[in-house]
């Protein structure tokens, strides 16, 4: 056992390749097998919507806070969605205190792109009074434990939190011109699309799903496919690394669509049980 541990430390790539030849990984999973996924909603009582997602050891929590804002000058009938991913030192020794690092910024931008491309929430639905008042949804995703595949966990937590959002009724008092909020009368947000991210890493000629941190560090490239409930592509995110053949890309897209059905089933069941309580 000690010898195997030493070999893994000195020659991690060769150690991995020995497992890959047998079509499995050091953690016992097959190459196309996902880690156990668990989701809880309503974890943060002070948020308007929240969700906690565990993907193996990777753990993220998303809290959504709705606030008032003036609509954009060029789109008087729209609101805003502002995603932000935080990777504190608490979640992994690779992160340092201070302003957001490169990976956190890249994850926030990835989420912003998916929100825009998928139209998960129409910004028109966030308008309260045309030209006067709109909702801005601050979507903060904090990583509590980092063990690879951050983007999948972030998107899953974001989608589950969106489905958990309850917005209060708002009306404008004609006499004062001020907004009046009725906290006793709340309604769910209209989630129009359900984008789910599925990440893969490339090892030589092999494609592996749901990578751990160690697998991401050793891999020659990564790709994240985002599909919606209709099987339509929302995003293909490939930040450099080795090339992916068209056949392999199609295989990844196909597997992403299958995974979407599993995640959707899990979220639907969860939201249904949350509404029943």
Average of pLDDT: 91
Structural class estimated from helices and strands: alpha+beta
Task: Estimate the helix proportion, in percent.
Answer: 25-40%
User: What is the H/E order?
Assistant: HHEEEEHEEHEEEEHEEH
Discrete helix count: 6
Strand content: 25-35%
Q: What Rg, in angstroms, do the CA atoms define?
A: 21 Å
Largest sheet: 6 strands, mixed
Word description of this protein:
- Strands 1, 2, 3, 4, 5 and 6 form a 6-stranded mixed β-sheet that branches. A 4-stranded antiparallel β-sheet has the order 10-9-11-12, with helices on both faces.
- By secondary structure, the chain is α+β, with helices and mostly antiparallel strands.
- Helix content is 32%, strand content 32%.
- The chain has helices spanning 2-10, 12-21, 102-118, 150-164, 213-218, 246-276; strands spanning 37-41, 49-55, 58-69, 80-86, 127-129, 133-145, 166-172, 179-188, 196-203, 206-209, 221-227, 233-237.
- α1 crosses α2 (12-21).
Short description:
The chain is an alpha+beta fold and 277 residues long.
Key attributes of the depicted protein:
single chain; 277 residues; alpha+beta; elongated
Give the secondary structure arrangement, pairings included.
Layout: H1 2-10, H2 12-21, E1 37-41, E2 49-55, E3 58-69, E4 80-86, H3 102-118, E5 127-129, E6 133-145, H4 150-164, E7 166-172, E8 179-188, E9 196-203, E10 206-209, H5 213-218, E11 221-227, E12 233-237, H6 246-276
Parallel strand pairs: 4-6
Antiparallel strand pairs: 1-2, 2-3, 3-6, 5-6, 7-8, 9-10, 9-11, 11-12
Helix pairs in contact: 1-2
